[in-house]
Specification:
This is Peptidase A1 domain-containing protein. Keywords: Aspartyl protease, Glycoprotein, Hydrolase, Protease, Signal. It is built from 8 helices and 27 strands. It has 507 residues and is α+β, with helices and mostly antiparallel strands. The chain has 2 domains: 253 residues, Cathepsin D, subunit A, domain 1 (Beta Barrel), CATH 2.40.70; 164 residues, Acid Proteases (Cathepsin D, subunit A, domain 1). A hairpin with a 2-residue loop joins strand 18 and strand 19.
Length: 507
């Protein structure tokens, strides 16, 4: 009996322990189950209109598709999915300058400006109000020699949600920003530029005799004594999209077609002086440079941009367009011959666009100009520049051309008028001679035949002057904007081609 009692007691103890373990395991299992249930918790989907008919649901679907399409259109606009965009372009004659102005909107919200369109500039910059440089990231506003009056257009970086300073230690600042300052107080300090900083460059020596050349700094400031100093950042430009109508596009004012071009490199100029900048708010860079507006915009629009320059004496309301993308113009004749020639994107000439000149013709006869004048490898060459007014020819070419032209005008009384060397009292001649036809031949048999008014210029009532200036030799010749006027010029950066044709530019 005692043994059986011990066995019974042991069995009871084992049963108790088993029950306890089972209960404990059950609790753990239930806890894990509850946790898993929480992890798998789902919301019940209930139809918004459980009794809606298929017709009603189809209407809802159409609304949904419209919403999706609008969303995708906005997204496409944000990444610039259209084929082209255009910016109004006018002559600056009404301000007394020889430049062409373009309307430009930058920042978020967009702030409007009037900038000089310049194929010789690699940095786009706008005027900033004194003290705004600190908001842009530059704490040193000391030394500003000029500031904008309260009513002038000035960029306010602090008001732009998309403004971002570029660090001075960045590759963009050290490698691409022209005349950037090397003295960084810290690696994150904003990239600063000073167009009064002394530089040594071959191109500066070449352009020292360029008349009214205002946007390529030479020596310690711009050639006419102007200066600019500020900081560099990136911001968004507001552009007016078009479907490829080019210079003749009629829908560029549509608000529904506006979009943002992100990441535009922009200089915020807090210190500036000189006559160059009294008539404009800054410079739109169209040069051959990694940071220029032209490079940025063209990379999104088929790798090309174009412009058509109205007569340099045209009134303010005579408007043409600077176009990125297709350059087809509805105002030009389909019968107009279009020429093309290689566009020389030579690093030695950067940020300028060089072309290969094969010869200069007067009344069909080629002038005897040494070929070295047009050869970059022999310290010559030629560039197109929208920021230079009068065409500049290196001495050997200049002397031959003016001699040939002046021979035709031998019977017309000479008069003096700066800055020209050959001027004539056209009304003083009994029978003024016919102006000979000038043609500039480029590589590929492309010929520029400008109207007579582009090279024999009406300088004053009754006075005409040979509108060409003498440049240094050795040196580069510059085809200025007056010789380019009333032609559509397309710079195909992707295929390295320059296309041009005579056309009506005014819209």
């Amino acid at each position: 009996m005692a043994v059986r009692g011990h066995h019974l007691l042991a069995a009871l103890v084992l049963l108790t322990l088993a029950a306890s373990a089972t209960a404990s395991g059950g609790r753990h299992h239930r806890d894990r189950g509850k946790a898993a249930a929480r992890a798998r918790a789902r919301l019940e989907l209930v139809p918004a209109a459980p009794h809606a008919s298929l017709a009603a649901r189809a209407i809802d679907d159409r609304h949904r598709r419209a919403y999706i399409a609008a969303k995708l259109r906005r997204r496409a606009a944000e990444v610039v999915g259209a084929s082209a965009f255009a910016m109004p372009l006018t002559s600056g004659a009404y301000t007394g300058t020889g430049q062409y102005f373009v309307r430009f909107r930058v920042g978020t919200p967009a702030q409007p400006f009037v900038l000089v369109a310049d194929t010789g500039s690699d940095l786009t910059w706008v005027k900033c109000r004194r003290g705004q440089a600190a908001a842009a990231g530059d704490g040193d506003d000391e030394g500003s020699s000029s500031s904008s009056p309260p009513t002038a257009r000035v960029f306010r970086p602090a008001d732009s949600k998309t403004w971002a300073p570029i660090p001075c230690a960045s590759d963009t600042c050290t490698s691409y920003v022209p005349f950037s300052l090397a003295n960084c107080s810290s690696a994150t300090s904003p990239c600063a530029y000073d167009y009064r900083s002394p530089i040594e460059s071959y191109m500066c020596q070449v352009l020292m005799l360029t008349w009214r050349r205002i946007h390529y700094p030479c020596g310690d400031r711009y050639k006419d004594g102007s200066a600019a100093r500020g900081v560099v950042g990136t911001d968004s430009a507001t552009i007016a999209l078009s479907s490829g109508g080019g210079a003749g596009s009629a829908d560029i004012s549509s608000r529904s077609r506006r979009a943002k071009l992100q990441g535009v490199v922009l200089g915020c100029t807090a210190s500036y002086d000189g006559d160059s900048f009294r008539s404009s708010d800054g410079v739109l860079s169209l040069g051959n440079s990694n940071i220029s507006f032209a490079s940025r915009a063209a990379s999104r629009f088929g790798g090309r941009f174009s412009y058509c320059l109205v007569d340099h004496l045209a009134p303010r309301n005579a408007t043409s367009y600077l176009t990125f993308g297709s350059s087809s113009s509805s105002s030009s004749s389909a019968a107009t011959t279009q020429f093309q020639t290689p566009l020389l994107l030579d690093r030695r000439m950067s940020p300028f666009y060089a072309v290969s000149v094969a010869g200069v013709h007067l009344n069909g006869e080629q002038l005897d100009i040494p070929s070295a004048v047009w050869d970059v490898d022999q310290n010559g060459g030629a560039i197109l520049d929208s920021g230079t007014s009068l065409t500049i020819l290196a001495t050997p070419a200049y002397e031959v051309l003016v001699e040939a032209l002046s021979t035709h005008f031998a019977g017309v009384p000479r008069v003096s008028m700066d800055p020209f060397e050959y001027c004539y009292n056209w009304t003083g001649a009994a029978a003024p001679p016919e102006i000979p036809r000038l043609e500039v031949e480029f590589a590929g048999s492309a010929r520029l035949a400008p109207p007579a008014k582009s090279y024999v210029i009406d300088a004053a009532p009754g006075v005409k002057c040979i509108g060409v200036q003498e440049g240094a030799w050795p040196g580069v010749s510059v085809i200025g904007n007056i010789l380019q006027q009333e032609h559509l010029w397309e710079f195909d950066l992707r295929d390295r081609l320059l296309r041009f044709k005579h056309t009506r530019c005014a819209q």
